[in-house]
Amino acid sequence: GSATWASLDDGDPEGVVARARAHGLEHGLALSLDRDGSRSFAGFARSDRAFTSAEGAEIEAITARLHDLTA
Question: 29 burial class (0-12, 13-18, 19+ CB within 10 angstroms)?
C-alpha cells in the first residue's frame, strides 16, 4: 500500500514527517509491499510539491519491480 505524508500527519507519533519537514522535505510518499512473506518498504520525498497521481503510480510500479528482482 501507499500513503502520502499529508495523510499521515495525525498518525506519526514519533514525528518522522515533522523531522523531514524540518530539513525542507515537505511532501512525501511511503510505500510497502508484502508478497509471499517477502516485504519491502520505501519512502520518497520532495521539497517543492506533492507527487502527482501519475508519479505515485510510477514510483509504486518501479518499487514493485525492484522488490520482485530482489525478493
Answer: buried
